[in-house]
Design goal:
about 400 residues; 7-stranded mixed β-sheet; alpha/beta; globular
Length: about 400
């Protein structure tokens, strides 16, 4: 029999990324007995951009912010560059190598029990309660290396292609983009002289819309202070993300700087239609598919979904009514469902080929587009107070899509 069989928790959170760590922190602060289980050693490929709202809402300390970006540069298939300056604001950058462990440690300081280990099996005891079998880090292979705990509720925050979802909430298939990036030493002044585009800037995010870098998504160069993230993503089978990243490094003049690490993982392209089993299991973060289409942004949405997961599981613990679990998805989609829908349409139309992406980059020159884009990103809300600007953007968008205007 696995060790730890007699341990009983209110909630077991499987996965210690932004979603799982946030859920565990909030539940522990509320006085619940929480186990946070994470498979250590995996760093998610991520540009690391977070909006000021996340910094405020989730009290991210200054030492976790490795850079503050003041401009985004959009690079068209033709090589044309469009700068989108952030008027009076910034985009904060974090490095997941340090950010995720800090989040897990915050959960532990809040009172959660943290253990490094790999989730193996979701089962049931004689009373019908959920049991979690896991293999602690460094434990022997085989049944003798497993430990088991019992819990009233389970939160699956174990990322895209969640094993918790496969065992406890099977059925739905979600499309994925496969992302890959290389963390490199940030170049010194003059090291990017041979770049196709302008030299690397430590306060600028560069986004490349070019088929050689990604046929259906985009490539990026994001500053991380003393390092930088260079990567790309694609849902196209057979497309070499490593070769595309190598090409991107050459385009940015970063082919000769030191590579510190390489990471890759799938990223879901839409939210699941159901996050809970109606009984005692709830998905959150990438496991629930809460990554923004078109942009691939996920940290803010993961942490919000983790917060909502904590709120509804606390309700279930207080009332015994498992129907409350469905409230997490309902609340999330009420707040951000329209944004995800719009971004999904944008990705479908504008990422099709280089001709469309050339026109998409042209749209990014428009002051109305830039202003509303940044306001929506910074505050994580669709901007509703400027209907005339929205009408103008819609007309311009349709004109570009129908090729009624020049892409230049």
């Amino acid at each position: 029999m696995p060790a730890g069989t007699n341990e009983i928790f209110d909630v077991v959170v499987i996965g210690g990324g932004p979603a799982g760590a946030t859920a565990a922190t909030d539940l522990a602060r509320a006085g619940h007995k929480v186990l946070l289980l994470d498979k250590e050693g995996r760093i998610k490929p991520c540009g690391g951009a977070i909006p000021p709202r996340l910094v405020r809402d989730y009290q991210i300390p200054e030492e976790q912010i490795v850079a503050r970006v003041s401009t985004a540069r959009i690079v068209a298939p033709s090589g044309r560059e469009v700068d989108m300056p952030i008027d009076g604001g910034y985009v904060a950058m974090v490095d997941r190598k340090d950010f995720d462990p800090w989040l897990r440690n915050r959960a532990a300081l809040a009172g959660a029990t943290y253990r490094a280990g790999s989730f193996e099996k979701l089962g049931r005891d004689a009373q019908g309660r959920a049991t979690i079998s896991y293999r602690p880090k460094g434990a022997a292979s085989g049944p003798e290396g497993l430990e088991q705990v019992t819990t009233k509720l389970v939160i699956g925050a174990d990322g895209a292609r969640s094993e918790v979802a496969r065992q406890g909430l099977p059925g739905e298939k979600v499309p994925f983009v496969f992302a890959y990036h290389e963390i490199v030493r940030a170049p010194k002044a003059g090291e990017c002289a041979a770049a196709e585009q302008s030299a690397y800037d430590p306060v600028r995010c560069d986004v490349y819309y070019k088929a050689k870098h990604s046929p259906d998504f985009y490539g990026w160069v994001f500053p991380h202070g003393e390092s930088a993230s260079i990567g790309t993503g694609s849902a196209q089978k057979g497309f070499s993300l490593r070769n595309a990243t190598s090409d991107l490094r050459a385009a940015a003049g970063l082919q000769d700087v030191e590579t510190l690490r390489r990471e890759g993982a799938p990223i879901p392209l839409r939210a699941l239609k159901r996050w809970d089993n109606g009984r005692d299991l709830l998905l959150t973060g990438d496991a629930a598919g809460v990554v923004a289409p078109a942009s691939g942004e996920g940290i803010y949405y993961a942490m919000l979904s983790g917060q909502l997961a904590a709120e509804v599981t606390a309700k279930v613990l207080a009332t015994g009514d498992a129907k409350a679990l469905a409230g997490a998805r309902k609340a999330f989609m009420k707040e951000h469902g329209k944004t995800f829908w719009i971004l999904g349409i944008m990705q479908y139309f504008w990422y099709k080929n280089d001709k469309r992406r050339e026109r998409f980059v042209s749209m990014c020159k428009d002051p109305d587009v830039q202003r509303l884009t940044w306001e929506a990103y910074m505050n994580k809300k669709l901007v509703r107070r400027k209907p005339a600007a929205h009408v103008k953007i819609f007309i311009k968008d349709m004109a570009h899509l129908l090729r009624l205007t020049s892409p230049n």
